[in-house]
């Protein structure tokens, strides 16, 4: 009997200590909780609004749970803790309590989250970023094109592009225009900005600003075919000086990207080795031209060999020096 009780208490002890394991994640170089560590202005605002929503709803649910337990304890049959009134029919206090709290909660969430939050993190015009912009500030513009299965980032202001790597300056608003050649997926850098759809023949927008220099993981957040697992990109937030040096380095590359070169780049490619390419010259208006071509039926078809034998296709890709 004693042994059984001790075993039960031991399990309770383990359960009680389990939350402390979450604190140990801070000791890891790459914590599994990094998605809850926003480093961008927009991502931080989205996280804050989400936590407001969670706290308010937990307050309602938690209070309801406590009241249920209290009622079960107080009015348990045979315990004589509460008195029974067979003629009771109505209580204004209970009505105010039951209806008032939900009305106040819904009103607060509607104002704080649904209205303010929607405008603050609206990807097309995030006021959390734009309201702090200087009248004559210098935001960065980046055109993003998703292919099967790579990311191309075009910097129109610098007439250059880079594939499978995003680099932006800190303390600077960055505005994205996004489209796709074939895949419908989601552009997502969890620690920096919210998720946005990327669709063929269409243009969407997003924006970010970060004061935290570092490297962050970007992903294609929606399944889009055989190469989805490798459709990743590193996002580097650099100081303005380091960003200028990076731009100068990229502009020294020998790669040029005309519409013909893009058509070759957009052919299906599984980027298993995290290949990064730089293009020092990009044809003007390439982003808009890609949208128009897709709207008029341009396709970059998948080889049947890729879907039937991916390992064989990867060997063929490597033999063609595309790996």
UniProtKB/TrEMBL annotation:
<dbReference type="InterPro" id="IPR010514">
    <property type="entry name" value="COX_ARM"/>
</dbReference>
<feature type="transmembrane region" description="Helical">
    <location>
        <begin position="12"/>
        <end position="36"/>
    </location>
</feature>
<keyword id="KW-0812">Transmembrane</keyword>
<dbReference type="GO" id="GO:0004129">
    <property type="term" value="F:cytochrome-c oxidase activity"/>
</dbReference>
<dbReference type="Pfam" id="PF06481">
    <property type="entry name" value="COX_ARM"/>
</dbReference>
<dbReference type="InterPro" id="IPR002429">
    <property type="entry name" value="CcO_II-like_C"/>
</dbReference>
<dbReference type="GO" id="GO:0005507">
    <property type="term" value="F:copper ion binding"/>
</dbReference>
<dbReference type="GO" id="GO:0016020">
    <property type="term" value="C:membrane"/>
</dbReference>
<dbReference type="InterPro" id="IPR036257">
    <property type="entry name" value="Cyt_c_oxidase_su2_TM_sf"/>
</dbReference>
<dbReference type="InterPro" id="IPR045187">
    <property type="entry name" value="CcO_II"/>
</dbReference>
<comment type="similarity">
    <text>Belongs to the cytochrome c oxidase subunit 2 family.</text>
</comment>
<keyword id="KW-1133">Transmembrane helix</keyword>
<dbReference type="GO" id="GO:0009486">
    <property type="term" value="F:cytochrome bo3 ubiquinol oxidase activity"/>
</dbReference>
<protein>
    <submittedName>
        <fullName>COX aromatic rich motif-containing protein</fullName>
    </submittedName>
</protein>
<feature type="domain" description="Cytochrome oxidase subunit II copper A binding">
    <location>
        <begin position="137"/>
        <end position="249"/>
    </location>
</feature>
<dbReference type="GO" id="GO:0042773">
    <property type="term" value="P:ATP synthesis coupled electron transport"/>
</dbReference>
<keyword id="KW-0472">Membrane</keyword>
<feature type="transmembrane region" description="Helical">
    <location>
        <begin position="94"/>
        <end position="114"/>
    </location>
</feature>
<dbReference type="Pfam" id="PF00116">
    <property type="entry name" value="COX2"/>
</dbReference>
<dbReference type="InterPro" id="IPR008972">
    <property type="entry name" value="Cupredoxin"/>
</dbReference>
<keyword id="KW-0813">Transport</keyword>
<feature type="transmembrane region" description="Helical">
    <location>
        <begin position="48"/>
        <end position="73"/>
    </location>
</feature>
<keyword id="KW-0249">Electron transport</keyword>
